[in-house]
């Protein structure tokens, strides 16, 4: 829990933006990080087109929406694996991944090691 709070504080500091829409997008993602999140869901939430959401987010943060979502999910996954007694499949499920293989690929891309190796 403490790690999650620290990540939230660092996130707010690192993605300070003058665009209120980007702030709303980041808050929505952070509030929904344990669910499956799509660009359509985000655009519906902030009442902007998917294309414009993608454009302003990349312009302000330097990352795509998907990169940011996966980064947040991977940081939580790492914390869950280190501190929990749950299976990797449960970690993937709790973070909204419908496919364990995709979760594993994202984890490996982010941390340069597969989740199974990290768990050991």
Q: Name the helicity range.
A: over 70%
For the sheet with most strands, the description reads: none
* N→C terminal distance: 22 Å
Quaternary form = single chain
Strand content: under 5%
Helix/strand order = HHHHHHHH
Q: Which consecutive residue ranges, at least 5 long each, have pLDDT under 50? A: none
Using the CA coordinates, give the radius of gyration.
Answer: 15 Å
Count the helices. How many? 8
Judged by helices, strands and strand pairing, the structural class is mainly alpha
| Envelope shape | elongated
Notes on the protein architecture:
- This protein has 120 residues and is mainly alpha-helical.
- It contains 8 helices and no strands.
- Helix 2 packs across helix 3 and helix 5 packs across helix 7.
- The two termini are 22 Å apart.
- The model has no long low-confidence stretch (mean pLDDT 87).
List the helices and strands and how they pair.
Layout: H1 2-14, H2 20-31, H3 39-46, H4 50-61, H5 65-83, H6 88-94, H7 100-111, H8 115-119
What keyword list fits this structure?
single chain, 120 residues, mainly alpha, 8 helices
